[in-house]
Design goal:
Conserved hypothetical protein from pyrococcus furiosus pfu- 392566-001, ParB domain, 38% helix, alpha/beta, single chain, 7 strands, five-stranded mixed sheet, 13% strand, 2 domains
């Protein structure tokens, strides 16, 4: 028997259903910048390698469970369709139980840019509706500069964003991002952050 080839489907970006309320728009802009640096052929190859992981819901919609920043960046750059990787098909789940199952799998994060929880009905309908959370951008950059290690914990950067949100003002993050990173690094290495995923602060003697 010959091996089956995987079936790849192009999905309109604006048909993707987000499972979080916010993204770090600074991080989105960085992804846009890197996208523009590639020639058309390279862009096509990148799209083939960076499929958006989704869950198929009982309403037959594709629910994004990762790469929200990439999806938003591609939308901002005028990309109309993306390849998706269906991680799970929950089409058999009763609609009233769908979000309970999603939360049990840690595939949804219904918290806003102030860290407040919302009803699932408040989730954006498209990636174009995702709101900016500067602390999510701060957490993403903090990881890149070695403030904490990459971790498989779902929404780990949002956990770090909330940690920083309680110690810094949004205005300071928006006015002087570089200085905010310096302060964030200090907080990240403290014992106060020891419970967070990827913490790599100094070990107590």
């Amino acid at each position: 028997m010959s091996k089956r080839e995987p079936i790849l489907n192009l999905i309109p970006i604006l048909s993707l259903q987000p499972t979080q309320l916010t993204v770090g728009m600074r991080e989105v802009r960085e992804k846009q910048k890197r996208w523009r640096e590639h020639k058309p052929k390279k862009r096509a190859a990148l799209l083939g390698r960076h499929m958006i992981p989704v869950v198929l819901g009982p309403d037959e919609r594709h629910y994004v469970i990762d790469h929200h920043h990439l999806a938003r960046a591609l939308h901002e750059e005028g990309v109309k369709d993306v390849l998706v990787n269906v991680v799970a098909d929950l089409g058999m789940v009763e609609p009233k139980s769908f979000w309970t199952v999603m939360e049990g799998r840690r595939w949804v994060y219904p918290y806003d840019a102030k860290g407040a929880r919302h009803d699932y009905r408040k989730l954006p309908k498209t990636v174009a509706d995702l709101k900016d959370d500067p602390f999510r951008s701060l957490a993403g950059e903090l990881r890149r500069v070695g403030g904490f290690a990459k971790d498989t914990t779902p929404f780990s950067e949002f956990l770090w964003a909330d940690f920083l949100r309680n110690r810094m003002s949004r205005k300071n993050v928006e006015v002087d991002f570089s200085k905010a990173i310096e302060r964030a690094l200090t907080f990240a290495k403290s014992q106060d952050a020891i419970y967070l995923p990827g913490w790599c602060g100094p070990v107590a003697e």
